[in-house]
């Protein structure tokens, strides 16, 4: 019965998508993107095959790879992952993407996401002085909610030593990927402007967030590169009812009126097809909409993006830049799911692979 129910759900998605997209305009979306963690060395070959046989035929023109410390940095070898990609392996990715006219954009999580569950990621593990909340100790067993309000740690944006290292990492990874843009993450920042922080305690959280965006943007602009960020911290979670994950509940949302206008906002909504691209575009920002695992929602988001572009004023239309599929498992797990090489537990309809197939047909 469960298998039959899953089959019926999948069938309904396959029926719904053509109905929703039948009348889509012939307008070409500037960004047809795919975002995933950079593959480990052992999964590089199958990932290159996936680019050739799946991304290219679907006319994907933008690939955001969440690299973080999965690269053999020479500027800061102490921050490398144990089995990090070499420069030669990155050049294989660069060459293949260039052959298929795919813009390759690396990401390192900046500001937030400096820890996950009970694990402190490389940056704060090696440089604990940069921690915004050093008094919050990592638990042996992570649970949410918790008394410390710990989701992910942040670095302190006002620490005098943080940006020298950050920008050395950013420059090296952008040079290695030969990229004209960099994705800084900056999503789900819960720790910012904490009262006990000796540098930013008591300061306006929106101003702190916007200041960090400007600092990163200005550094990139000096080298002819564009800044991409996730958009959730620029949305008011309380007024919209979107809550603390897909929007901000700690007053960073006012930063939307303070950040530079030439950044790219990656507007992710996974549970509902919220129409927030209109809000970002009306603020003068370029925006792409980002689904994850629900094909029916993603189809509506894609239809909305086409409609926004079709009905917009000449001033607004260029700000609606397109759509980017996001994947939140590692590349190896996604490839196993996509090619049916692993037994998927749980929901077999609402998956990132099904969502990708639905919105980007070959």
Keywords:
362 residues; alpha/beta; two-stranded antiparallel ribbon; 14% strand; globular; disordered N terminus
Q: What is the C-alpha radius of gyration, as a whole number of Å?
A: 20 Å
Low-confidence stretches: 1-12
The SSE string, one letter per element, is HEHEHEEEHHEHEHEHEHEHH
* Count of alpha/pi helices: 11
* Coarse structural class: alpha/beta
Separation of the first and last Cα atoms: 32 Å
Going by CATH, the architecture would be Alpha-Beta Barrel
In total, the number of domains comes to 1
Q: What portion of residues belong to β-strands? A: 5-15%
Percent in helix? 25-40%
Characterize the largest beta sheet: strand count, sense, and whether it forms a barrel: 8 strands, parallel, barrel
- Give the neighbour order of strands across the main sheet: 1-2-3-6-7-8-9-10
Compute the number of strand runs: 10
Mean pLDDT: 93
Query: What fold name stands as the CATH topology?
Result: TIM Barrel
Question: What is the top-level CATH class?
Answer: Alpha Beta
**Overall shape:** globular
Any chance you could write out the topology, listing elements then pairs?
Blueprint: H1 2-21, E1 31-37, H2 44-55, E2 62-66, H3 87-99, E3 103-110, E4 115-116, E5 119-120, H4 122-126, H5 162-177, E6 181-185, H6 205-221, E7 226-230, H7 237-240, E8 264-268, H8 277-282, E9 286-290, H9 295-311, E10 320-326, H10 331-338, H11 352-359
Parallel strand pairs: 1-2, 1-10, 2-3, 3-6, 6-7, 7-8, 8-9, 9-10
Antiparallel strand pairs: 4-5
Helix pairs in contact: 1-9, 2-3, 9-11
